[in-house]
């Protein structure tokens, strides 16, 4: 069954890491059949083992792996740049609280804190606590629930998180509940409508079940957001390739993004009843 529109009309799309992949004929969403697989929410070492496909032997090692992406022109730094640009271009007020769900190495959290937000992160992996210590951040270790935080936030972000979840609509509804009146949500996702995704199909390197298991088209993304009471205010596609050092230069990245829209999508989102 499609995790977005709940229809059973889907076709076989491919196979990766031993998991079968399907494309919904109704909303064009692509997804992995995880057969109700859930990662460990109890044992931190087991969670890291499952989340990193056994490639990282410690939380410190995984933090340092994530921190590589913070270099100029690298994936995490480019993503943060686009998130902040999108917020500025759409008049988001840089004040109040910012909650980053799945804050990883903490780069976004540290930059919004420097920009004037009261920043708070949550990360189930122990690498979030390492980020908190090294960058001077507030990070809760665990999974977000309805009562994890007593307050609402001006902005809630989830960077490369939604594709990991078995129930994306439920998650979008959950984070919507943490946004104060007039606030925004920011998400980034691998974008299944991008030229690279269409060309490579199930061989696309973003397809990594059981971690990356949801692949949104614009149709399925808008449907998921609508079901959660949300709608896109603005979005952009972008590239995160390092391109042999050329990605260090912002103007080169902008040229590449214009010539070939990238496989990542960043969206600025509001509740439907708050749209003008």
Would you mind describing this structure in some detail?
This protein has helices at 44-51, 59-67, 75-89, 107-114, 127-135, 168-176, 195-200, 218-227, 250-259; strands spanning 10-16, 19-24, 30-32, 97-101, 118-123, 139-141, 153-159, 179-190, 214-215, 230-238, 264-271. With 276 residues, it is an alpha/beta fold. The strands form 2 sheets. A 7-stranded mixed beta sheet has the order 6-5-4-7-8-11-10, with helices on both faces. A 4-stranded antiparallel beta sheet has the order 1-2-3-9, with no helix packed on it. Helix 3 packs parallel to helix 4. It is globular, with a radius of gyration of 18 Å. The model has no long low-confidence stretch (mean pLDDT 90).
Q: In a nutshell, what does this entry contain?
A:
The protein is an alpha/beta fold. 30% of the residues lie in helices and 25% in strands. 41% of the residues are buried.
Mean pLDDT: 90
**Helix fraction by DSSP (H/I, runs of at least 4):** 25-40%
The largest sheet is: 7 strands, mixed
| Cα-atom radius of gyration | 18 Å
Contiguous uncertain segments of 5+ residues: none
Q: List the helices and strands in order.
A: EEEHHHEHEHEEHEHEHEHE
Shape field: globular
């Amino acid at each position: 069954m499609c995790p977005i529109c709940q229809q059973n009309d889907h076709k076989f799309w491919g196979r990766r890491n031993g998991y079968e992949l399907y494309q919904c004929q109704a909303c064009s969403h692509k997804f992995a059949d995880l057969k109700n697989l859930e990662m460990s929410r109890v044992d931190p070492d087991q969670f890291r083992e499952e989340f990193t496909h056994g490639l990282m032997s410690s939380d410190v090692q995984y933090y340092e792996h994530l921190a590589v992406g913070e270099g100029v022109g690298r994936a995490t730094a480019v993503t943060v740049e686009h998130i902040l640009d999108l917020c500025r271009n759409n008049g988001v007020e840089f004040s109040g609280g910012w909650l980053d769900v799945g804050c990883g190495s903490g780069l976004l959290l540290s930059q919004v804190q420097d920009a004037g937000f009261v920043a708070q992160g949550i990360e189930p992996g122990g690498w979030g606590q390492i980020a908190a210590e090294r960058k001077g951040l507030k990070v809760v270790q665990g999974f977000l629930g309805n009562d994890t935080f007593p307050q609402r936030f001006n902005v809630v972000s989830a960077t490369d998180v939604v594709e990991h979840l078995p129930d994306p609509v439920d998650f979008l509804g959950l984070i919507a509940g943490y946004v104060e009146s007039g606030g925004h949500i920011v998400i980034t996702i691998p974008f299944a409508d991008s030229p690279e995704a269409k060309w490579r199909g199930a061989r696309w390197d973003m397809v990594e079940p059981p971690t990356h298991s949801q692949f949104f088209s614009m149709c399925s993304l808008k449907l998921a957001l609508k079901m959660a009471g949300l709608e896109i205010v603005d979005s952009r596609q972008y590239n995160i390739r390092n391109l042999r050092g050329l990605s260090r230069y912002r103007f080169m990245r902008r040229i590449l993004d214009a010539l070939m829209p990238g496989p990542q999508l960043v969206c600025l989102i509001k509740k439907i009843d708050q749209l003008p």
